[in-house]
Write a structure and sequence with these properties.
single chain; about 450 residues; mainly alpha; about 60% helix; about 5% strand
């Protein structure tokens, strides 16, 4: 191991100097190079993008996996670069319990048959949820994680380098300012021995040109050492009257050299700062491309979520039909249908999307029992008990004279007849009467 003590001491001195300078800037005791307004806006937008990406990522993980222990386990498997084991979803676990209960309580009983039907539907819902979680993780969560763990780390690294270059630049500006002030002071007061401690940091190393003059101190106390010059050894010593003038000339030369050196260091620091600022600016402007990528991923997430809920709706609609037929046989004359409002249809020009999200209205001719299609509505009388009020969720246009046209948000009276298809009810509005689809209604208590 190559242990360089000088480099370690130099790095420690630079770190200490930057820390002191940064603290002085915070307290307003030191000048600070300000970035332009456009650069500051880029920094603010990058920070905002990072913060909101973290929040969206965390909350999406909670949506896809509400169990915090499972999330921690998946995180550990991911960090260990191991495949996450397959986990049973809540719907599949519920389906398993229902199937076991039906097997123990009697699969041929009405309750057992219903448990088996619901278990099958829950199993399908669980499989659909698994596909949705997998798709959402790949198309949405993975790009967000890649941004936080890749692009953002690169941006943060370059920003730290830019901060160090700025501190170095400000230190060079302060050093040049002090050198010029000390030079003016020495010229006015006629100091013969310049003190560079005011213009150089603690870890500053004298250059060969500055140290070759021989003006240095042995300690804090005591006079400076005499000037070592080979000319003095070969030539006769000047008279004592010329010594003050010679000292002032040498002092002026030394301070000029110190100012030139500070100016050179300032030019180098300014160049490095400008170069690092340009690199950081390019990375920050790349946030716009990140937004475009995240926008595309967001569309994929919405698409997968729409597909998931559409599949869940179809599974539950099939289950509702199965349960409605069984319930109509066991409890004739009871209401069949959802009492909760159905999600409104999405406005889309795509026929596939409309078919997946619009309430499915079964055909009267295909679903009606024999003899029901020719039912005379004028002869149908509402039952003595069992009528209810319903609110219409969507507009519905009657397909034939046996159906009742509906307008959204209107209230009608509905009831069911023995042997009637569970997806339809008899609706009455004033003196008009006809069949109405259950999926377009919200039954009120």
């Amino acid at each position: 191991m190559d242990f360089n003590m000088k480099k370690l001491a130099s790095d420690a001195g630079i770190f200490f100097t930057r820390a002191v300078q940064f603290t002085e800037e915070k307290f307003g005791q030191a000048e600070k190079t300000e970035l332009d307004a456009h650069f500051e806006n880029l920094l603010a937008r990058a920070d905002s993008t990072k913060n909101w990406t973290e929040k969206i990522l965390r909350q999406t993980e909670v949506l896809l996996q509400p169990n915090p222990s499972a999330r921690v386990e998946e995180f550990l498997y991911e960090k260990l670069d191991r495949k996450v084991p397959s986990r049973v979803t809540n719907g599949e676990l519920l389906a398993q319990y229902m199937a076991e209960a039906a097997s123990e309580l009697g699969p041929t009983t009405p309750y057992g048959k219903t448990l088996l039907k619901v278990a099958e539907a829950e199993k399908q819902l669980g499989a659909t949820e698994r596909d949705f979680i997998h798709t959402a993780s790949i198309s949405f969560l993975t790009p967000l994680r890649n941004f936080l763990e890749g692009d953002w780390k690169t941006i943060s690294k370059e920003r730290r380098l830019l901060q160090n270059r700025r501190l170095d630049l400000d230190a060079c500006k302060a050093r040049l300012k002090k050198a010029k002030a000390a030079e003016a002071k020495a010229t006015c007061e006629g100091d013969t021995v310049p003190d560079f401690q005011e213009t150089r940091p603690r870890n500053y190393i004298l250059s060969a040109s500055a140290s070759a003059t021989g003006f240095h101190h042995v300690g804090q106390a005591g006079p400076p050492l005499p000037l070592a010059c080979h000319h003095c050894c070969t030539l006769s010593l000047p008279s004592l009257s010329l010594l003050p003038a010679l000292g002032e000339t040498l002092t002026s030369i030394l301070w000029n050299d110190e100012v030139d050196k500070a100016e050179q260091e300032l030019r180098v620091a300014q160049t490095e700062f400008d170069r690092q600022a340009e690199v950081t600016r390019l990375l920050l402007e790349g946030i716009s491309s990140t937004h475009v990528n995240h926008l595309r991923c967001l569309h994929e997430f919405v698409k997968s979520q729409t597909t998931y809920y559409a599949q869940c709706y179809r599974h539950m609609l099939d289950l509702q039909k199965q349960l409605g037929s069984s319930q109509g046989t066991i409890f004739p004359g009871t209401f069949v249908g959802t009492t909760e409002p159905t999600s409104p249809p999405l406005s889309s020009t795509s026929p596939t999307t409309t078919a997946a999200t619009m309430p499915v209205v079964p055909s009267v001719a295909s679903l009606a029992p024999p003899g029901e299609a020719s039912l005379c509505l004028e002869e149908v009388a509402p039952p003595a008990s069992g009528t209810r009020k319903a609110r219409v969720l969507y507009d519905y246009e009657a397909a034939d004279s046996s159906e009742l046209a509906l307008l959204a948000d209107e209230l009608i009276t509905v009831y069911s007849l023995p042997g009637m298809d569970p997806d339809w009810l008899i609706g009455e509005r004033g003196n008009k009467k006809g069949k109405v689809p259950v999926t377009y209604l919200e039954l009120l208590s």
